[in-house]
């Protein structure tokens, strides 16, 4: 709760800084019509209100299932398009209310200028907003996030070592749109979130598990359970006991293998990991 409060407070602070800069520049006729103090009040209120409205729209797009997988730049573009009309109307109303000489710029022209300004402001902030408010949710409790060390000594198979050379860690950050460190180990579903585990950390992401699996279709790995996906180069061995089967991963996590996927897992691993 405290961390969420700080995130919102930080966002408001950024809006105030942007408002101060815009007040000094004085766009839309405010430079010639208003004093510096009036411009500061004008733009602090306008930028803060429009900024909060934009953030609400951005968060809605990041959470909505149909757009949750979008790249942050696409979300910023869509958010700017959605918020441009109400933002332009607010600025137009302020101009008509506070300025003595009425601006001849119509609402369409004003909207075009506002849209460009929104893009200039939101695009550089997109990744940070995504990480702070969506993907980098602070679940840093012992029962939710485990920082683990890679057990590289287990990866003795030469083929696995060779395969690991082709795994590019930034690809995962690009594919899933998150900022995470380390080599990907596995992904598991947790309610409406997925837990992405690497050899360095774990992160909870608001995304459907099925969507994540689809995004990872070109990555070296496979689904082994209805709620588990594993990176192939992070598998240490396949174990069986009674009628149950599971994979031991490099971070010492035991991933269940369901009956539905057992044949495909054994076929994929072949004699390499089978006991």
Summarize the helices and strands and which ones pair or pack:
Elements lengths: L1 H24 L4 H4 L2 H28 L8 H27 L8 H29 L22 H7 L4 H8 L7 E7 L2 E6 L3 E5 L2 H7 L5 E5 L2 E4 L3 E7 L2 E6 L4 E3 L2 H11 L6
Antiparallel strand pairs: 1-2, 1-5, 2-3, 4-5, 6-7, 7-8
Cross-sheet strand order for the largest sheet: 3-2-1-5-4
Q: How many domains is the backbone divided into?
A: 2
Radius of gyration: 25 Å
- Strand fraction equals 15-25%
Helix content: 40-55%
Derived from helix and strand composition plus strand pairing, the structural class reads alpha+beta
The largest pleated sheet is described as: 5 strands, antiparallel
Mean pLDDT across residues: 77
Uncertain regions spanning at least 5 consecutive residues: 135-170
Dominant shape = elongated
Through-space gap between termini:
47 Å
Please give the number of β-strands: 8
Summed up, the helix count is 9
> SSE string, helix = H, strand = E?
HHHHHHHEEEHEEEEEH
What does this structure look like?
- There is one protein chain.
- The chain has 275 residues and is an alpha+beta fold.
- It folds into 2 domains: 2-135, no CATH class; 152-269, LytTr DNA-binding domain (OB fold (Dihydrolipoamide Acetyltransferase, E2P)), CATH 2.40.50.1020.
- It has 9 helices and 8 strands.
- A 5-stranded antiparallel β-sheet has the order 3-2-1-5-4.
- The radius of gyration is 25 Å and the shape is elongated.
- Residues 135-170 have low confidence and may be disordered.
